[in-house]
């Protein structure tokens, strides 16, 4: 029985995961793209005042159980998805249901940080890690994350919340070596790296039939 292929695009903040994943989706017929940030907890949980910023981000940011039970586990077990799935709406800090249909033999791409944590890793058929140094990532987020505030406020947020949690992930999981493929996703090599990933996915799919 052919089962769905579940591809993870892992990487730290500002590494280019979303851009790469969108291009990859466009090149893969019928693949559906899910963003891990569509499955975050509301602010009251992910900004829990009883723990540090980095602890809240690392352990209280995402609804792993919901993602697993509603999407990853059924597909991994050879079942189709045909129903309403809750997606986070940042405008009202709540969830809205959307109809999702994925055939049992379909393909999905999940992009987000920390995808190789023990909660998720075994559900992926392959994980691509986008490895970009901190200086380049910081330059990107300073020019992108204006919703946080000024550049000083963005830097403060990353230094108190995101970077410490990312360092913990790197130490606990060594995602560069755990991943099936490691890419740089720089613009000059982006097309070539997308082609490389597509070939890798196709070869892996052929070998598991």
Automatic annotation (TrEMBL):
Phosphoribulokinase/uridine kinase domain location: 6-165
Pfam families named in the record: PRK
Example GO molecular function: kinase activity
InterPro entries: P-loop_NTPase, PRK/URK
Keywords on record: Kinase, Transferase
Name listed for the protein in its UniProt record: Uridine kinase
Organism: Sporosarcina luteola
Gene: udk_1
């Amino acid at each position: 029985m052919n089962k769905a292929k579940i591809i993870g695009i892992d990487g730290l903040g500002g590494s280019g995961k979303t851009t790469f994943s969108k291009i990859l989706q466009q090149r893969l017929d019928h693949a559906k793209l899910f963003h891990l940030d569509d499955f975050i907890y509301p602010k009251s949980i992910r900004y829990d005042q009883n723990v540090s910023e980095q602890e809240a981000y690392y352990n209280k940011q995402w609804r792993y159980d919901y993602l697993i039970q509603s999407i990853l586990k059924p597909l991994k077990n050879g079942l189709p998805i045909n129903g309403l799935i809750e997606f986070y709406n940042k405008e009202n800090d709540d969830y809205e249901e959307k109809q999702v249909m994925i055939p049992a033999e379909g393909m999905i791409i999940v992009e987000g940080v920390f995808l190789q944590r023990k909660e998720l890793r075994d559900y992926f058929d392959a994980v691509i890690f986008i490895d970009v140094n901190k200086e380049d990532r910081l330059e990107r987020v300073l020019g992108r994350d204006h919703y946080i505030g000024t550049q000083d406020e963005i830097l403060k947020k990353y230094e108190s919340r995101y970077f410490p949690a990312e360092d913990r992930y790197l130490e606990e999981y060594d995602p560069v070596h755990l991943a099936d493929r490691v890419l740089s996703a720089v613009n000059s090599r982006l097309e070539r790296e997308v082609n490389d990933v597509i070939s890798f996915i196709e070869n892996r799919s052929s070998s598991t039939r």
